[in-house]
Write a structure and sequence with these properties.
By secondary structure, the chain is of the alpha+beta class. The protein is built from 10 helices and 6 strands; from the N terminus they run H-H-E-E-H-H-H-H-H-E-E-E-H-H-E-H.
């Protein structure tokens, strides 16, 4: 198995997101993101930029908390997108160089957060070009592995997951059900961008109920999101 170049995956996603966001006009930049209604595209890129700056400055006391994330957005609210992109482009190479040394779990978490927000922004404008980017395979594996951990934690049986042409089992023991969906759909569901009803509507063999409430890595939406 080839070694994963985490820094390269982060850089490719960052450059693609920067290119997309800088191509939006002022009206588009003011649009609320359906996946994250409290944010605009500018806010999303402020967050991913702020993560890099906070890591490098050692501002990690409340890492991952809502307050930590909100502060990244508020600190850049008066800046235009070009300035935020310039900041990100300046600090990100250090993060990319550190990604491999951080270990697979931390690097995968960083990339998964970035890919999730890149898809959030693109989804607001109907852009589908990043749904099969090189980083999405890593993100899917990361989220699926974490689903297995959650299933073990609640004592649920293992689940067979068929994502496009890829098949795997998450959780421990023999699978009691199978779910089929595209890798993109599963990434969005596993990251909290789909409602419980949408997850139940996937192609299931067996009972979906033991799995639905544990499906999402982050708080699950209460209403459907169609992208």
């Amino acid at each position: 198995m080839d070694e994963i170049d985490y820094g390269s995956l982060y850089r490719q996603t960052r450059e693609a997101m920067c290119s997309f966001v800088t191509g939006l006009d002022d009206g588009q930049l003011a649009v609320r993101l359906p996946a994250v209604p409290e944010w605009t595209a500018r806010d999303a890129i402020a967050h991913v930029t702020g993560i890099c700056t906070d890591i490098l400055s050692g501002n990690l006391a409340d890492v991952g908390s809502d307050a930590w994330t909100a502060a990244q957005v508020v600190a850049r609210r008066g800046a235009d997108v070009a300035s935020i992109v310039a900041e990100w482009s300046e600090v990100s190479p250090q993060i990319e160089a550190m990604a491999g040394a951080a270990g697979p779990e931390m690097a995968s978490l960083l990339i998964s957060d970035l890919v999730t927000h890149d898809l959030d922004v693109r989804g607001a404008f109907g852009d589908t070009s990043a749904r099969s980017s090189p980083a999405t395979a890593l993100v899917y594996d990361f989220y699926a592995t974490n689903l297995g951990t959650r299933l073990d934690g609640i004592g649920a049986p293992a689940l067979r997951v068929i994502a496009d042409r890829s098949e795997g089992i998450v959780g421990s023991g023999e699978p009691a059900a199978t779910v089929r969906a595209s890798r993109f759909e599963l990434i969005r569901a596993l990251s909290g961008r789909r409602s419980a009803g949408q997850i139940r509507a996937y192609d299931w063999d067996g009972d979906s109920e033991p799995y639905v409430e544990a499906f999402a890595e982050y708080p699950m939406r209460g209403t459907p999101l169609n992208e």
